[in-house]
Amino acid sequence: MKTINDFDIAIIGGGLAGLATTIAMGKNHRILLIEKDRYPRHRVCGEYVSNEVLPYLRSLGVYPIEHGAKEINTLQISTHTGKSITSNLPMGGFGISRYALEQLLYEQAIQHATIQFETCLEIDFKEDRFSITTKEGSQHTARYVIGAFGKRSNLDKQLERKFIQKKSPWLAVKGHYQYNFEDNLVALHNFKGGYCGLSKTETGVVNACYLTTYSSFKKVKSIQEFQQKVMSKNPLLDVFFSNAKSLFDEPLTISQISFENKKPVENHIFMVGDSAGLIHPLCGNGMAMAVHSAKILSEVFEKHPLTERKKLEVAYATLWKDTFSGRLRTGRLIQKILLRPSLAKTSFGIAKLFPSMVPFVVSKTHGDIIV
Ligand SMILES: Cc1cc2nc3c(=O)[nH]c(=O)nc-3n(C[C@H](O)[C@H](O)[C@H](O)COP(=O)(O)OP(=O)(O)OC[C@H]3O[C@@H](n4cnc5c(N)ncnc54)[C@H](O)[C@@H]3O)c2cc1C
Questions:
Q1: Which of 33, 49, 321, 356 has its CA 20 to 30 A from that of 269?
Q2: What is the C-alpha separation between 248 and 250, in angstroms, rounded?
């Protein structure tokens, strides 16, 4: 077993939250980042990022627009039957692939930390210190651990987190397509049992990413059949899937996506991004929350010395709840409405009469711009 030096902080997981935390905290602390997969890589995601974090990303040395990200200011939502509303997006956002965005963050993070591409198997806390063991046989020690291992990880089981014991009905599929689509638009098309987001990325391809339930999916034999027979009942999705040319050999899929409540600090581990809580994807705010949580955690660590573990834990947990709990609640409510055809129909009727309602509701799932 090889032993590497002791660190101030070990960050487990190098998605958006882990990478942003590494850059934000790496200037002041000796950091080890452990990530299981090398960059760049495609991830299942809608790839629409809220402008809430654009200035902050720039302060971390990451410039999405300069790398071709599409500036998005318009939202189209449609019902199962294809009735649609188009509205301006109060804060707007940008379209960039995870492939590109994580690579940009990684290029900055590597300047601030030791990065190890291994799978973390165990995190143990004893006598005010963590020991971390990887599948590949490395062992490290650290004063603090930051959990940035996403919505579902082997570590959630090892740490016996509550949400992991419940089965989740949600699965998601994503692909990139060649298709004629407006640069400034993000579309959210509903279908029976789920919804599909469409938006362009920096390369000009359209990302189609949808969330649905096992019960909707098990009635068909393949993804293709699901897209043709279930999703394409929405005429707007029918037009998309009939004309778009798939650029992936196979779409990417993930399952067991849990939206259960989690704790921002658990077993003395500071959770950031989806490890602390996943907002419903229709809000288009999960990536911004991942980056934003990195910012608030780094600020808490700037305020209190490393010797004050309890103060750090209480300060972060309080700030995390104040910043994100309201949006998670609103996200759950919107998800419920959109997935119930009768409620969705009534809400669309009201939104047609009062168009300013759409940007108002969207703003409730987002925070203010952070710098
Ligand atoms: C279907 C779907 C669509 C979405 N669309 C959008 C959208 O359009 N806009 C938006 O803002 N948000 C969207 N989201 C949410 C967004 O994807 C997440 O909120 C965001 O990726 C969270 O980043 P993260 O860094 O917390 O987690 P992740 O990006 O999942 O990163 C976790 C990292 O941890 C690593 N890891 C896990 N376990 C280990 C281990 N044991 N050892 C080492 N490494 C490990 C993983 O390899 C991964 O790199 C969507 C989510 C879903 C499910």
A1: 49
A2: 5
Residue 151 Cα to ligand 1 midpoint, Å, equals 6
Instruction: Say yes or no: CB of residue 266 within 6 Å of ligand 1.
Output: no
Q: Are strands 114-116 and 31-34 parallel, antiparallel or unpaired?
A: parallel
Among 135, 287, 297, 366, which residue has the most ligand 1 atoms within 8 Å of its CB, making it the best to mutate? Answer: 287
Three-state DSSP string of 183-216: CCEEEEEEECCEEEEEEECCCCCEEEEEEEEHHH
101 lines ligand 1 (CB under 6 A): no
Gap from CA of 132 to ligand 1 centroid (Å): 21
- The mean pLDDT value of the chain amounts to 94
Q: Ligand 1, closest atom to CA 121?
A: 41
Q: Other C-beta atoms within 10 Å of 51: how many?
A: 20
- The answer to whether the Cα torsion of 371, 64, 103, 47 is positive or negative is positive
In the chain, where the domains are located: 3-166+258-363
- Spatial distance between the Cα atoms of 78 and 98, rounded to a whole number of angstroms: 25
Tell me, what's the pLDDT at 3? Answer: 60
CA–CA gap between residue 65 and residue 52 (Å, rounded): 14
| pLDDT over 90 at 361, yes or no | no
Residue 123 has pLDDT above 70, yes or no: yes
Residues β-bridged to residue 199: 186, 207
Class of domain 3-166+258-363: alpha beta
pLDDT tens-digit map of 258-272:
999 999 999 999 999
